[in-house]
Write a structure and sequence with these properties.
Helix content: 40-55%
Strand order of the largest sheet: 3-2-1-4-7-8
CATH topology of the largest domain: Rossmann fold
Bound molecules: nicotinamide-adenine-dinucleotide
Number of domains: 2
Shape: elongated
Oligomer: single chain
CATH architecture of the largest domain: 3-Layer(aba) Sandwich
Number of strands: 11
CATH class of the largest domain: Alpha Beta
Largest sheet: 6 strands, parallel
Number of helices: 14
Order of helices and strands: EHEHEHEHEEHEHEEHEHEHHHHHH
Radius of gyration: 21 Å
Length: 305
């Protein structure tokens, strides 16, 4: 018999992830604090509950897909006299924490799960809403080998690449490191296109060279920040996300938290965080992160003659 699943956080990502679990035959009970999100999940076959605790009652697996660490702690612990997920779930339940949160918060969440007699993984994702809908997310998991093996059949419904990165927090660590590369590389690619434009190069010429040379990277060949060379990139649809500037700013904020807690000096990673934080605050929050090229272009005035 299929294991029962509680799904907490039915937003842009959690909604379609829960729907895929239902489509695969799992009984899923969901909860979200926003009624519209609950209604959409119900339409997709999720049984809705009046609280997280109610959803978790008797569930074998508890999945959280929430905005940030503080939401995860609030859902785990409950509040205002209302018990949380940890108290409601049956002993030994498997907690899969799929939100993108700070590495230290992920480790704390693991401790809470173990201290209350449960098991768990941090399992953040990449692949965005498109990947959540298609069931093709990449999961980066942290936790024990046994819990990773146990989670496999459920994560495989929602994703196509499932990587065990190490112990508690290792999934979030991998996510934050990957996205620091991504933020820095998108800025580098965008600066190069603006410089190429100023030097009289066509974008296509620079793409044809760099895509097959040492400048090759995902920011160039998949999410190319100029329209034309990669027809599917957000630049071709007025920078509609894709991966929104607000999420890049958030993830780089988590990277800087990790840099500070480890004492690592990452001049480019830190600078990328500043650049994307400003981008998000000044109109880029809902724009694909490759729209940073327009900020660079706007700032690049011709030198005085
Ligand atoms: P979202 O804001 O659309 O969804 C989060 C949901 O959590 C909301 O519906 C909110 O009402 C709900 N929520 C908040 N507190 C709650 C609580 N205590 N109990 C129940 N529900 C609660 O965000 P999203 O885009 O779905 O992202 C979710 C997580 O996935 C974030 O951590 C994000 O960084 C990460 N992520 C997002 C993307 C993306 O492309 N959207 C990609 C990778 C990772």
């Amino acid at each position: 018999m299929s294991r029962t699943i509680a799904f907490i956080g039915l937003g842009h990502m959690g909604g379609p992830m829960a729907a895929n679990l239902v489509a695969a035959g799992y009984p899923v009970t969901g909860f979200d604090v926003v009624p519209e999100a609950l209604a959409a999940a119900e339409a997709a076959g999720v049984k809705v509950a009046a609280s997280g605790a109610e959803a978790a009652q008797g569930a074998d697996v508890v999945i959280t897909m929430l905005p940030a660490g503080r939401h995860v702690f609030a859902a785990y612990q409950g509040g205002d006299g209302v018990g949380g997920l940890l108290a409601a779930a049956k002993p030994g339940a498997l907690f899969l924490e799929c939100s993108t949160i700070a590495v230290e918060d992920a480790r704390k969440a693991h401790e809470m799960v173990l201290a209350t007699g449960h098991r768990g993984l941090d399992a953040p994702v990449s692949g965005g809403v498109v990947g959540a809908e298609a069931g093709t997310l990449t999961f980066m998991a942290g936790g024990s080998a046994a819990d990773f093996a146990d989670a496999g059949e459920i994560l495989e419904v929602m994703g196509k690449r499932i990587v065990h990165c190490g112990g508690p927090g290792a999934g979030q660590a991998a996510k934050v490191c990957n996205n620091m590369i991504l933020g820095v590389s998108m800025i580098a690619v965008s600066e190069a296109f603006v410089l190429g434009e100023k030097l009289g190069l066509t974008n296509q010429a620079l793409f044809d060279v760099a895509a097959n040379a040492s400048g090759q990277c995902w920011s160039l060949t998949t999410n190319c920040p100029v329209p034309g060379p990669v027809p599917t990139s957000p630049a071709n649809r007025d920078y509609k996300p894709g991966f929104a500037g607000a999420l890049m700013a958030k993830d780089l904020g988590l990277a800087v938290e990790a840099l500070n807690s480890t004492g690592v000096v990452a001049e480019l990673g830190s600078r990328a965080e500043e650049i994307y934080r400003r981008f998000a605050a000044e109109g880029g929050a809902g724009v694909d992160f490759s729209g940073i090229i327009n900020t660079i272009r706007a700032a690049s005035t011709a030198p005085e003659q």
